[in-house]
Amino acid sequence: MHKATSVSNRKLFHFHGGLHLPDNKSQSTGDPVRKAPIPARLIVPLQQHIGEIAEPLVTVGERVLKGQLIARAQGYISAPVHAPTSGTVADIAEHLIPHPSGLTGLCVVIDSDCRDEWIDLPEPLTSYHNSDPAELRERIRQSGIVGLGGAAFPTSVKINPGPETWIKTLIINGAECEPYITCDDMLMREHPQRIISGIEILMHLLKPERVLVGIEDNKPEAIGAMREAAASSGLTGLEVVPIPTLYPSGGEKQLIRVLTGKEVPSGAIPAKIGIVCHNVGTAAAIADAVLEGKPLISRLVTVTGEGVKTPANFEVLIGTPARNLIELAGDYTSKISKLILGGPMMGFTLNDDAAPITKAANCLLAASGHEAPDPGPATPCIRCGQCAAVCPVNLLPQQMYWYARAKDLEKTQEYHLFDCIECGCCSHVCPAHIPLVQYYRYAKTESWAQEQEKQKAEQARKRHEVRVARLERLEAERQAKLRMKKEALAKKPAAKKSNDADGADPKKAAIEAAMKRAAEKKAKLTEQGVAPQNTENLTPAQQAKIDQAETRRKASHSATTVTDTTESQDG
Amino acid sequence: MRFATITSPHTERPNSVTWTMLWVLIALIPGTIAMTWYFGWGTLINIVFASVVAVTSEALVLKMRGRNPIPEIKDLSAVVTAVLFALAVPPLLPWWLTVIGMVFAIIVVKQLYGGIGYNPFNPAMAAYVLLLVSYPIPMTSWVPPEMLNQHALSFSQTLTLIFTGSLPAGLTWDALSMATPLDVMRTQLDLNFTLGEIKNSPLWGDFGGLGWEWVGNWYLLGGLLLLYKRIISWHIPVAMIGALVVIAMLFHIIDQDAHPFALFHVFSGGTILGAFFIATDPVSACTTKKGQLIYGASIGVLIYIIRTWGGYPDAVAFSVLLLNMAAPTIDYYTQPRVFGHERSSHD
């Protein structure tokens, strides 16, 4: 065991701040991972990932098989959803989902038939070394894999950095820095081989020079198991690196910093500096998808806290209601005060345990009043700077707080609001108990809303400018035509005279005169604000619509001339 | 089952303003004991009296502001202000000056700006300066340290003197009071005595003023406690004392007769109290680390300038207030480099 904790000789780096928190992990690591039984009813949200919601492909009453595609990805940044077990689609409707504000989302509700009958899975790609990377990527995409560390970003996007980006370092995140959560720890202890297989696939796809598996040194068993599996895999360039336990080392940018010394530039993704980071759970899911053809329909979830009787880890089908897991963990104790999805630092409270487990759910923390006390009233900031001292991004949280409070969003951004990773360190240490992170969330959302407004206004401005330019052009053209007409008229008598000898063409003259009248009439109408309408050959229905539109337009205040019509015609 | 929702993080918070202030008060205990030991009961009486006046003023003004006074009184910040004030003023300061000082500190300097967290100036130092400028004589009439004091007053005598102004029978103010070492140093240097001559006076201890140097040491002990508890960071005290030492040493080397050695400056007057307890007042100090270094060093330099060429023998209060004014600007120009905002060196 001691050997497992032995420090690697790799030079590690620091990030600013961070917190040493009581890790509270041993409560849930005593027993091996148990398989949670299939619930009678599963609620499978269609948006379990960052990006576009998946589009349902099944209908109510339809029988589905385990692993069957029930909703397909819409767009590039999206992920499909599969049936976690066999059964009947009972409903496709809005249902309570795990959401900080207790919102609902579109879910496919499946009544299980308890047969757990698999659909015909796609062929395992065991000899993927010879297959096209595109095929592998497609398999991973079709398997609905998203980042299982909590952010749930579609994995297929991350494994396709593009031909110009060379991924030098692949980082596998086994840090699990949040207190209480142990699902990655247990996965590494029990299934290191699956993770290593996943890493091998990722290595084939990304061709990195080196692979670093970062694990916080409070998980010696996991480090040992992973090292053993890594050694027996014979993969070169793969190293399991124990890192000091310091929250939030598991944050993507923090882990990259610790392992490589590099800082991901603000606002950029790690690929920009030749790094891609995947969670250990994601690596295992990739192995399942490629080597067995299994889509992502289950995950490991830690159920812990003083609010449940027997904390443990479970392998849970996606869509299992949180309440079922609580029952598996021996049900609530009398101490239960709050139900948190995720860890204490970044997780959010569920207002109802009917919410289902999603791909992003790594931990269900049934916290006692002692573990997650109700925050006392916030008192004024005394500018002590503790928040700045612990900020892993080296922000000035206190300054951002003042500006967020004053709704001076521009200033919050000057102080790099959008570099905040919402890790909660500042709020945790604040002696005035100010919910700092909440202020930053507010400022971010407000900024986004304002940015959207600004973009809308910008679009409107551009449209307006184009319209004004077009009006000017039309006017200039009209003037030019008139001028030409006038000149032509002035020349005519002279021309007539000269033409007299040849005998003027009276027909031509008549046509010209008619055209001139028409042009004049048109110009006159234009001046009066009546538009040419191109209304020949219309069906009665079309005519009726036009009439309606005309009435509407007359009713509307904008009475400006021809141009409105031109505008609407231009779309 | 349904639950209440609150925002993350969901943890028991390790810090509170009350605990912060309580630790400051605890850290002031050694210095307070030393002050009482060397300069008599006056300091203790002032501490208690100033605290009562400060808390009463705070309750009163919060009531007038239509707020519940209990939470703000419970944060103990008014008591910290009172204790710092009482430690800075002469031990036999007449009671009504303490009242003026505390009312000014709490009502004008603190609450009129919005209460705790909003005051741009350190309330204790603002009160100190107000009194020093307005009542220079009582504010500079110190008692001699215990070992030089032939007329040490008893507790009741001190109490009577502070609250009624009546001296014990047969004693005059002149017999009771004595200028501070800083004061003596200034006056004598102005009279063109050399440092060697001045130092022959019995007022001098091993490295600072007799008595004073030990008070300084005990304050230092409290300051280290604050550092250990991470109530303060090292930046301000180290920069302040460091700058003072450097500049004092420089001038001492240039002219040994006219400029006292560096340790004299550190262990006389309010330097140590100022460095660990006053300049570090979070509300009115700089908050960025680089800013704190500039802030602290500037206070150190200003202390030397005012002590050496200014109109007052001690200068901690003036220097702190001047830098309080500059703190927001310093903070603005010393923002740290945010993660990912500059190309880091490649490995």
Characteristic terms for this protein:
heterodimer, A: 571 residues, alpha/beta, Rossmann fold, six-stranded mixed β-sheet, four-stranded antiparallel β-sheet, 17 helices, 39% helix, B: 347 residues, mainly alpha, 62% helix
What is the topological layout?
The complex is a heterodimer of chains A (571) and B (347).
Chain A (H helix, E strand, L loop, with lengths): L1 H4 L28 E2 L5 E5 L9 E2 L6 E2 L4 E4 L8 E2 L4 E10 L7 E9 L20 H10 L12 H4 L10 E5 L9 H8 L1 H15 L3 E7 L3 H14 L4 E6 L8 H9 L14 E5 H13 L5 E7 L7 E6 L4 H7 L7 E6 L6 E3 L12 E6 L17 H5 L6 H9 L3 H6 L10 H5 L6 H65 L5 H23 L11 H16 L5 H10 L1
Parallel strand pairs in A: 1-14, 9-10, 9-12, 10-11, 13-17
Antiparallel strand pairs in A: 2-8, 3-5, 4-7, 5-6, 7-8, 13-14, 15-16, 15-17
Chain B lengths: L16 H23 L2 H23 L4 H6 L2 H12 L6 H16 L12 H12 L1 H5 L14 H10 L8 H4 L4 H10 L4 H5 L12 H17 L6 H20 L7 H5 L4 H8 L10 H21 L6 H18 L14
Helix pairs in contact in B: 1-4, 1-12, 2-4, 2-5, 4-5, 4-6, 5-6, 6-17, 12-15, 13-15, 13-16, 16-17
Oligomer class = heterodimer
Q: How would a crystallographer describe the biggest sheet of chain A?
A: 6 strands, mixed
Overall mean confidence score, pLDDT of chain B: 89
**Structure annotation, total helices of chain B:** 17
Distance between the termini of chain B: 52 Å
Low-confidence blocks of residues of chain A? 1-6, 559-571
Contiguous runs where pLDDT drops below 50 for at least 5 residues of chain B: 343-347
Round the mean pLDDT of chain A to the nearest integer and report it.
88
What structural class is derived from the secondary structure elements of chain B? mainly alpha
Q: Rg of chain B to the nearest angstrom?
A: 22 Å
Say how many strands of chain B there are: 0
Task: Give the overall silhouette of chain B.
Answer: globular
Sheet with the most strands of chain B?
none
